[in-house]
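TL;DR need structure tokens for one chain.
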Amino acid sequence: MIPAIALFFLSPLVGEYLLGNTPVTDVGSLFLFAPMYGGGALLIREVARRTGRGWAAIVPFAAAYALLEEGPIDMMLWNPTYGGFDIAAAYSETYVPALGTSVQMLQDVLTMHTIWSICVPIAIVEAFCRNRTEPWLGKVGLAVVAVVFVAGSAALCAMQISSTGFVASAAQLRWSAAAIAGLVLLGFWLGRRSSPHRDGVAPAPAVVGVAAFGATSLVWCREFLPDGVPQAAVSVAWCVLVAAAVLLVSRWCRSAGWGASHRLALAAGALATYVWVGWQHARDMDIPRTTALLGNVGFAVAVAALLLAAFRRSSAHGIQRGGHE
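>> reply
TL;DR here they are.
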């Protein structure tokens, strides 16, 4: 039960507070976000583990969550002035009329929520568990979490509609629902396939962590590109980077020596990226400079302590290395 509670709150803490979307002074919003973020992360993790599936299923499930949150729930994918920002203008170059949104917006949504809202919190909390593949909830607990997730998501959706007056079209909701269902089915299919081991030895966990930090930081570095760089070129670069990262991690995790410390290093590298991104993003969200600085420093210290404890606990448990995840 403790790991489930930890994941329930860690997911929104990473997805909203560490990112800089929500100031550290707004503690109350944690309980507003947790049912959706934490409930979603828990459902994904429990369904994957209960059906004997691993990260090959969790990642597509997380991508489905990303489209669900920013699609039918808060409709950011289609709202041109979401959050008071001129999103339509910011993403205009890759706008696809048939989808009602832009390619680059979809890429941002998939990156943020797949990696940081879902996968990173799951990997970190599992590092504290002696048996990371063991379900944390019984049938009743799983049903309760499902109800909390649906109720919390519906409440946030209603709040968004009430505050903005924006409602997505039926066509937009249909294609997003189809994409979400497709990703869920893909996760179930990929998760049951066994990946053959390959010759070679996995790199040291430190190398994996640095690579994860570098790749995830590179995604956010487009903020520093000079004016005039075509958004289409950035979108193509995103596809190349993601494809290369997936292929590399897939190759590493089938190599001899790959284990718990490597999985945790992947999550740690990505989490470290949000530490520096959070400061920049908080400024973009017009959070007071002092509040943003104190929050960023506090979260940086908390991240360091959390990761140190996770690596120590993972090592102490002596989780057997190897496997296809």
